[in-house]
Design a protein that fits this description.
The complex is a heterodimer of chains A (271) and B (359). Chain A is an all-alpha fold and 271 residues long. Chain A has helices at 2-10, 13-22, 24-29, 38-47, 65-68, 71-92, 100-109, 116-140, 149-171, 176-187, 220-225, 232-263; strands at residues 57-59, 206-207, 211-212. Chain A has a two-stranded antiparallel ribbon. Classes of the chains: A mainly alpha (271), B mainly alpha (359).
């Protein structure tokens, strides 16, 4: 009996924790160990690839919630959530006219834990709002001023990419809402000056005498949709842009954005 | 109750709503010491909330607000005013400190360096956990919208772009697609990116302030809040079938008739002013319009450089100055065109539908 008691005591969470922390596996993964001393807290920031996005020390004024609203961080986190849920959705979704809509129905009715599409959609809306608020914060604190002019520009492109990511994703459920929203949106492209067949100047561009260069099958809208209307090719194009093209560009620019925050002197503050 | 609803329905008509919002923005900035305080927020935001809650009892209001994709915009309706108010409150507080010679709120802690672990990392962790809870809760409560399968033969009325582009779609009321859908979005992007290179005011870098950069802040807030966010809200909640205006408590009647009474400038000039027919030659017909547009982009920069923008011209130099004024004129063209439409039913200043060239 007493032996059993001894065994149980030795299995207490504290002791178990200590044993784990002493094990070779744990120490190989977390080189620094639990950051309990200031030295270890610094080392953990340097040693971890994700944490080293941040500097070891930061100005207290710069990380105040009342100063940053955490909006940039929230936007980045939402991007990660969308990447993850988007990946799961790709398992179930086929970007063709025959399957797209029924796959979405299946996603809602057959797939266990079926809130991934909801998280993806609401997260995308939230990201649009959070990226706008991030811009408002950066503007209102004058943080675009030198030396951060370039990073503001990168941020503007990231904002546009966020909208484009949301726009391309909007088509994928292939329901009435999707199709007509994209129709309205992409109809703008046919009014592109010179490059859209209903844009000013397009009928000045001709091949030879009077064969128009820009027609409904050779204009900016056609390039966007891969057809004269929102159809099969548009679905495929938007799918590829949504899942591969735009996230790659956004990811690349985010790397630049974060790197430049560090290089330009960290989160802004009064000099 | 019905009278109140009617009053609100009238007040939310685009011309009144946009004018009132603009007045509110500028008046609140003028009296910012009174407006951007906790007391006002404690009255304003609960009042907005109560207004929304009571309005939910109205069938038409409920219908439009609870459309699944409109839910985030309802959130935005609170978030954007709140953060605008908050940043202005911080600015007012800092300005007061500057006046009395005490250091800025941010300045008090600039010298303090803290360890990122735990001070920042834990804030981020808490933000992540809260956001995850919010997203999961939201996703369980409200299913993502899914309408009927796409059908190219059945055009819904109204057909709306995704909500964040509805500001652009609302612009279509005043400008043709080549401007509202292509040129203006391009100019918005270029204009935003140009801000740090045009704004050479070295003050207000890295802290909230209004006094030191009131001009920049008012231009930005007018552009963002009125010309973007308000138009998104207008386009989402108040535009129904055929893109007609409907008050928040109005039934979206597909058969609502709006008289098409808009008149081109060429019509005003040749027919109404000179009492003759419009000339057949396009260039002569639209010559007045061309003069107006050219004059709009050429005269103000020169006049302003000598008058109220004199300081800008001296500080910025010709290149920066002209780019700034050009971008400002482009931005101002939207409210100007709106006012011209509301007052004179003006359709096109230059109208050459033959070449899709309408301004």
């Amino acid at each position: 009996m007493s032996q059993l008691k001894e065994l149980l005591t030795s299995l207490s969470p504290t002791k178990l924790g200590e044993a784990i922390q002493k094990s070779q596996i744990y120490r190989s993964v977390f080189r620094v160990g639990v950051p309990v001393s200031d030295r270890k807290r610094m080392l953990v920031m340097l040693g971890n690839v994700f944490l080293h996005l941040h500097p070891v020390k930061v100005r207290k004024s710069g990380i105040r919630l009342r100063f940053t609203w955490c909006m940039g961080g929230i936007t980045f986190f939402l991007f990660l959530v969308l990447t993850f849920t988007g990946l799961l959705l790709m398992f179930y979704y086929r970007p063709t006219i025959e399957y797209a809509y029924v796959d979405i129905i299946d996603l809602r009715e057959q797939v266990p834990l079926g809130i991934m599409r909801e998280i993806h959609r609401w997260g995308a809306h939230a990201m649009v709002i959070s990226v706008w608020l991030h811009m408002v914060r950066v503007f209102m604190t004058g943080s675009y001023k030198p030396p951060r002019e370039f990073n503001w520009g990168v941020g503007v492109i990231l904002l546009v990419l966020t909208l484009l990511l949301s726009f391309t994703g909007y088509l994928l459920p292939w329901d009435q809402l999707a199709m007509w929203a994209i129709t309205v949106g992409s109809n703008m492209a046919r009014a592109t000056p010179f490059a859209g067949y209903e844009g000013p100047g397009a009928n000045l561009l001709t091949l030879g005498e009077n064969i128009p260069l820009i027609s409904s099958t050779s204009d900016a809208r056609f390039a966007l949709l891969g057809g004269t209307r929102v159809g099969e090719m548009a679905l495929l194009r938007f799918y590829v842009l949504h899942c591969v093209g735009l996230p790659l560009v956004a990811g690349f620019l985010m790397a630049v954005h974060f790197w430049r925050i560090r290089r330009d002197g960290g989160i802004s503050g009064p000099l | 109750m019905e009278t109140i609803k009617d009053i609100i329905n009238t007040l939310t008509a685009p011309e009144i709503l946009i004018t009132l919002a603009t007045i509110l923005l500028f008046v609140s900035a003028k009296y910012r010491h009174v407006f951007y305080t906790n007391t006002v927020a404690l009255v304003l935001f609960p009042a907005m909330f109560v207004f929304m809650a009571i309005s939910m009892f109205d069938e038409d209001f409920y219908l439009i607000v609870t459309k699944p994709d409109n839910v985030p915009i309802v959130g935005m309706l609170f978030l954007i005013p709140f953060f605008t108010w908050f940043s202005m409150r911080e600015a007012v507080r800092n300005d007061r400190r500057t006046d009395s010679g005490t250091p800025l709120i941010e300045k008090e802690e600039t010298a303090d360096k803290v360890l990122t672990w735990p001070d920042l990392v834990y804030t981020e962790l808490i933000a992540i956990v809260l956001l995850t809870v919010l997203l999961v809760g939201w996703s369980i409560l409200i299913p993502a919208p899914l309408e009927e399968s796409a059908n190219p033969a059945a055009t819904p009325n109204p057909s709306k772009a995704p909500w964040y582009f509805l500001g652009l779609q609302e612009m279509l009321v005043y400008f043709d697609p080549w401007l509202a859908g292509v040129v203006f979005p391009g100019l918005i992007i270029v204009g935003l990116m140009a801000i740090p290179y045009i704004d050479t005011n070295p003050k207000g870098n890295g802290y909230y302030t209004f006094k030191e950069r009131s001009w920049e802040i008012m231009t930005f807030l007018f552009g963002f809040l009125i010309l973007w966010v308000l138009l998104v809200i207008l386009g989402t909640f108040l535009r129904g079938p055929n893109w007609n205006f409907f008050g928040p408590y109005e039934y979206w009647d597909t058969h609502k008739l709006e008289a098409l009474v808009n008149v081109d400038l060429s019509d005003y000039f040749w027919v109404r002013l000179l009492g003759m027919g419009r000339p057949d030659n396009i260039l002569i017909r639209e010559s007045v319009g061309f003069l107006v547009v050219l004059g709009y982009f050429l005269i103000p920069p020169m006049v302003l450089a000598r008058t109220i923008f004199k300081r800008f011209y001296e500080n910025l130099g010709p290149a920066r100055y002209h780019i700034m004024v050009f971008l400002l004129l482009c931005m101002a063209s939207l409210p100007i065109k709106m006012v011209l439409r509301w007052l004179f039913n003006l359709k096109y200043i230059i109208g050459i539908p033959e070449f899709f060239f309408n301004i």
